[in-house]
Amino acid sequence: MTTTRVEDEAILRTLLYADLFDYSLTAPEIHHYLIGTPADFETIRDALEHSPWLATRVARADGHFTLRDRATLARLRDLRRSSSSILWPLARRWASFIGCLPFVRMVAVTGALAMNNAQQGDDIDFLIVTAPGRVWLTRALVVLLVRLARLLGAKLCPNYVLSQSALSERRRDLFVAHDLAQMVPLVGLAVYAEMRAANTWAAAYLPQARQPFQPEPELVRPGWQRELQRLGERLLGGRMGDWLEAWECRRKLRRWAHCACGPGALLDAEHVKGHFDDHDGAVLRAFEERVARYGG
Q: Would the pTM count as exceeding 0.90?
């Protein structure tokens, strides 16, 4: 089998993106996260083994692929996998607690842990989907749980809270597509499926990453958790919940009014994504610079 330059360049781009996060990839992961160009696994494996063009740019170490001068990332990945294995039980436990809060419809792990690339002491990042009209109130309840978790030694970060009525992402680029592809849903798999269906545009960037690379089974919530959630929603529904939602929204927007929000931030009735720097943009600019440098 002979691969084309298009496929070779797609492999290189995929490795360049992972390299931004000091992350090596296996051949199945390269196939799954292949950027821009669909290809079957045999084609990817053949290119990695036989392409002269890739051979001058890509190294293999312990079953992982990296850029030629970054082979040490395979060892770093082992270390971070070990750190991540410590965080995953905490992530599942606290996702279960978050999932029984009123109006929570989905809880997913995002960030470094979702890729088993967390360092010791890292936060556990969560994306949380809420019932419509309860984004700010639900986030406030989650923050209370985050503070309790910190007292017990767990560092949680609900870095994106959005409404089930706003699952389609406004910002559409490779960074957001990767976030969607990498997230690991733990509560609300049906809502996760809705979210992926609402963002089919991401297939233009990652045509083969339509599901998590290693899906986690949905957490089984005991009956008492579901009853507790229903009770909370009865108490915080209606006019009382509407008033608390509006009050919390006004309170937080006043507090954040002095902050310079980056283009990745979203603070409105359906989103709480307080990204006050331009991390997303910085990653994409660095990626484009590396593509130009390596000829991908």
A: yes
